[in-house]
Amino acid sequence: MKAILHADRNWGIGKNNGLMFRIPADMRFFRDTTIGNVVVMGSNTLKSFPGGKPLKDRENIVLYPDGESRDDCLIVRSLDELFAEISKREGRGEKVYVIGGQMMYKTLLPYCEEVLVTKVDAVGDADAFFENLDANPNFRLVSSSLPEITNGYTVVFTVYRNLSPLKY
Q1: CATH number of 2-162: 3.40.430.10, 3.30.70.1350, 3.30.390.30, 3.40.50.150?
Q2: Comparing C-alpha atoms, which of 31, 20, 7 is closest to residue 109?
Q3: Residue ranges per structural domain of the chain
Q4: Which residue(s) pair with 97 in the sheet?
Q5: pTM above 0.70, yes or no
Q6: Which pLDDT does position 166 carry in this prediction?
Q7: How far is CA 93 from CA 81, 89, 111, 139, in A?
Q8: Among 70, 66, 67, 68, residue whose Cα is nearest residue 54
Q9: 10-residue block means of pLDDT along the chain (168 residues)?
Q10: Beta-strand (E) ranges in 31-152?
Q11: CA–CA separation, 168 vs 147, rounded Å?
Q12: Is 46 helix (H, G, I), strand (E, B) or coil?
C-alpha cells in the first residue's frame, strides 16, 4: 500500500475539507498514478468530492463506520474489514493508494511501503496536516524530481520509503 498527497512547507494537506492548491501538474500526477487502481479514503474525503461521488475509473474503498452501503463504492465499517479488503486486492496484484484525509493518513501511514508527496513551496493556511516524513526515522527520501513551476507554485515530486512497514 502507498499513500499519495500534496503538502505545503509545513506538511499541510488540506483546508476546510478540501485541497489548498489547484496545481494542474499535481492533479495530473494523481490521476495518472491512481487511475485503474484502488483508492482508500475516509468518509470526509468522499464527501469532499463533487457531489460526494467517488473517483471515476478507480475502485473506491471508504472507511465509513456509520455510512450506508452504496453501489458506486465499497463502504467498510472497521479497520479489520479495511485491511481484509486491501489484502485481497494486493493478493491479486492490484495497487492500493491511500488518498486521505488526515485521520486515514495518520492511521495507515505505518502500513504504507511508500508515500508519494508533491511538495508545494508555499504555505496554504492548512487545518489538516500530514506527518513530517523528513523528521521520521522510519522514512527515507528515495527520489525527488527537479523543481517545476505550475500554476504559480514551485513543486517537487518526491517518494519516501518506509524502512519498516507494519503488516496488516
Answers
A1: 3.40.430.10
A2: 7
A3: 2-162
A4: 2, 39
A5: yes
A6: 97
A7: 19, 7, 17, 24
A8: 70
A9: 98 94 95 98 96 97 94 97 98 97 98 98 97 98 97 96 96
A10: 38-42, 59-63, 74-76, 96-98, 114-120, 128-129, 139-144, 148-150
A11: 35
A12: helix
**Separation CA 60–CA 92 (nearest Å):** 16
**Residue 159 burial by CB count (10 A; 0-12/13-18/19+): exposed, middle or buried?**
middle
Q: Residue 107: phi, psi to the nearest 5?
A: -70, -40
Task: Report residue 128: phi and psi, to 5°.
Answer: -135, 140
pLDDT tens-place string over residues 42-86: 999 999 999 999 999 999 999 999 989 999 999 999 999 999 999
